Amino acid sequence: MIVMLSSIYRGVWRAAAAHTLRTRCGVAVIRASGPASATALKCMAGLISGLPPPRTALLRSITDPQTKEVLDRGLVLWFPAPHSFTGEDSAEFHIHGGSAVITAVLQALGSVPGMRPAEAGEFTRRAFQAGKLGLTEVEGLGDLIHAETEAQRRQALRQMSGELGQLYQDWSHRLKRCLAHVEAFIDFSEDELIEDGVLNHVDRSVCDLQEEMERHLKDERRGERLRSGVQVVIAGATNAGKSSLLNTLCQRPAAIVSPIAGTTRDVVETALDIGGFPVLLSDTAGLRESPDLVEREGVRRARERVEQADLTLVVVDCAHLPTEAQQAAAFLQGHLRSVLPTQEQPETDRCLLVLNKTDLLPQEQRQKLARELGRVSGLPPVSLISCHTDEGLQDFLTVLHSSVKTLCGDPLSGAPTLTQARHRAHLQQCFTALAQYQQYRDIDLALAAEGVRLALTSLGRITGRVGAEEILDIIFKDFCIGK
Fold first, then answer.
1. How far is CA 96 from the centre of its chain?
2. What's the per-residue H, E or C state across 440-460?
3. Which of 355, 396, 360 is nearest to 372 (CA)?
């Protein structure tokens, strides 16, 4: 087990890490960054003759620089600027992971002149400030650290690699060029220093950017959903087996199960990994009219969760179904309308029908029901299961995984997707600002240019980089003005 204890500088050791570390580990890595890291490495690793070759591990005794006491024996590495994570001189101490060893080494680092504890996230902030990481890459790194499922890891790693940031940087570069050309036309067109048709080129670029951004925004929140988890809600009438389904899926008694109708009053949540995709599964109160104030509040919360759900599992007790298949289909369609949000046509693509307690039906009736319901149009995918015997559970999990995968998409295929609500908000502002350019293009070119400038600023808030000097560079480079 490797534990990264961020030590920075202006050498920074992370004293808090010694207190927050609760588990023992084989190896701990302590990192120092900044001008004092070279001093810390030499005096604590006994490197009298100088620093070791870059990125080469040396086995050394780690000593206290004041008392000269040997604290541990481990590997040390040297990363000279700018070829380090932060872009600064950096050193690493790979020591044994016992809490006493870690504490002693951190305290010894604190005695080196110029060293101070790192603030939370300071290593990554310095990497961003040094241009080693863009803001979207920083966010990808954070997502990678917190990834709990395979799909989250893949998406975070793709974002950390810079693919999403590269897309936004490309749009930003094109917007800078558009803004530079518009401002050059405003300032220098009367001097006949501007080529004919420059605004037509801007018009085409703006239209292309709007189309690309619109496609990017119409992603049905796949990336955000994968990052935060798919909201799956179990809903249905009382005593249909909703809590039993929750317990079966999470393989523990997360919810109380009893034959008494209305046992579940509040929302019970649990996080699951469904085939590598993150799911937040919610069990809700049974939907029925009740004179009980507490139960009515539970029903209100249940309906609220269904409205917010990415996917709803509508659980039905098989014993309540008509024996005739067509009548059963009509019953289920009516039941869906009572459970799903009020609308003319329920969203069956965001819903799965789970017919529970199939162990109470004869086998022949179960087979006929599955066969006949499979032919009925207008119903969502139907799964016949028994939480008591686990019959049909594997087939249901396959259907559930397929639905969750569709909602999240494949994080490795196609264009990179939006992963943060912050990105979406700034892109929508950018799209709106470009519409301002279109609106004022033939009325007031200065206001049209302001629209492009606002669009560029909104995009820069995603990447973390907006600069006026770059606009001037393009103006003078493209038109050789003032030559």
1. 33
2. HCCCCHHHHHHHHHHHHHHHH
3. 355
The answer to whether 24 and 128 are in contact (CB under 8 A) is no
Q: What is the pLDDT of residues 287-344, one digit of tens each?
A: 999 888 999 999 999 999 999 999 999 999 988 888 777 888 889 989 999 999 865 4
Q: In terms of Cα–Cα distance, which of 79, 76, 95, 80 is closest to 28?
A: 95
Q: Checking phi first, is residue 34 left (phi over 0); if not, alpha (psi -120 to 50) or beta?
A: left
Three-class secondary structure of residue 353 per DSSP? strand
Full-model pTM: 0.83
Taking the CA atoms of 221, 399, 382 and 290 in sequence, report the sign of the dihedral they define.
negative
Among residues 42, 82, 79, which one has the least CA distance to residue 62? Answer: 42
**242 and 236 in contact (C-beta within 8 Å)?**
yes
- Tokens read off for 3: 């534990």
State both tokens at 27: 């190896």
87, 123 contact by CB (below 8 A):
no
Residue 399, CA atoms < 13 Å, CB-side half-sphere: 20
The answer to whether 351 and 321 are in contact (CB under 8 A) is no
